[in-house]
Amino acid sequence: MGWKTLDDIEMTDKVVLVRVDVNVPFEDGRVTDATRIERIVPTVRDIMERGGKPVLMAHFGRPKGKSVPEMSLSLIRDDMERILGVPVKFAEDCIGAPAKNAVISLEPGQVLLLENTRFHEGEEENDAMFAASLAALGEVYVNDAFSAAHRAHASTEALARLLPAAAGRLMEAELKALEAALGEPERPVVAVVGGAKVSTKLELLGNLVRKVNTLVIGGGMANTFLAAKGIDVGKSLAEHDMTDTARDIMAKAEEAACEILLPVDVVCATGFAANADNVTVPADACPADRMILDAGPKSVEKINAVFEAARTLIWNGPLGAFEIEPFDAATNAAARKAAALTRAGKLISVAGGGDTVAALNKAGVADDFTYISTAGGAFLEWMEGKELPGVAALEEAGN
What we know:
Layout: E1 15-19, E2 26-27, E3 30-31, H1 35-38, H2 41-49, E4 53-57, H3 77-84, E5 88-91, H4 96-104, E6 111-114, H5 121-124, H6 128-135, E7 140-143, E8 165-167, H7 169-183, E9 189-193, H8 202-211, E10 214-217, H9 219-228, H10 243-255, E11 259-261, E12 265-269, E13 278-282, E14 291-295, H11 297-309, E15 312-316, H12 329-343, E16 348-352, H13 354-362, E17 371-373, H14 377-383, H15 389-398
Parallel strand pairs: 1-4, 1-7, 4-6, 5-6, 7-8, 9-10, 9-15, 10-11, 15-16, 16-17
Antiparallel strand pairs: 2-3, 12-13, 12-14
């Protein structure tokens, strides 16, 4: 662990610039899911308890360097104030006189929220002058936005090199959980990778076969792998132009002594609709006029047996069309097994990605996993083995 935490930085009476991710869904004038705001609470409270004055920096939407009223962080100020439980002041810009004056007038017990950093082109360009303008506002930098750490932006990368820098509590928890899952994990390690397309997760699969003992492939991706083995998948979602790639991944897995677990039985339906007419058949017996929408019960038994033998689980993507019944059965059953093993202290379970979080919430087990990451792109790039600029900058600042 080369980066510093809040415990390593003196904050008394200091202005602490905190990069957070509060890019929450916002519809009809309200925040529809406040999870990302809720997750910054420990960091903000800790800074205040240590005598620091938190100044929050964040992006909201994709304004592409222009001031867009519908993407102003002022829209979520009231929600932040309610969730943080302290007065939240707002600055109409993240640099310059509006920001400086707001910082000067910030009193102990208050939090300052700066306007959307992406209203300036310098943010996404990782511009040194823009980063310096941000740095001029504070004395300490804290990055609590792992979900934005895969972007080399001014507020996530350049700024970490200009001030004493540390990871916030959310960033710290995320990095420790990920290190436990893939850095130096307890073995055996199993990864569940699902979703629609192999093409979107090529680097992920290529990295995982070298790191894990068993790779469980589900969802539409599994259909492509079944097709690569010469199995007719009927009208199922599958990337038939990716079958050579799938065979290559299976060959690399064999070289690395990584077992790839594909469905042995499947649930086939007449169409993609809730409660569509369906049958459960062996994986190589999908009727030509049907589509595979879920893994079958025998597949779940095999997956659960792998979980039983494992010590570490990484999960990204559902096993089937979890959004509609009854094609959520495999995902729900496997998720509940993983949760039970985690509760019993037999398994370290780390999950991430939008569909994954939604699926685990739907199964009612998200709270039972060791760690659930809300970071989409950053979580995937970490699983792919890529360096994350925001994390690398913290590590350099800590050495």
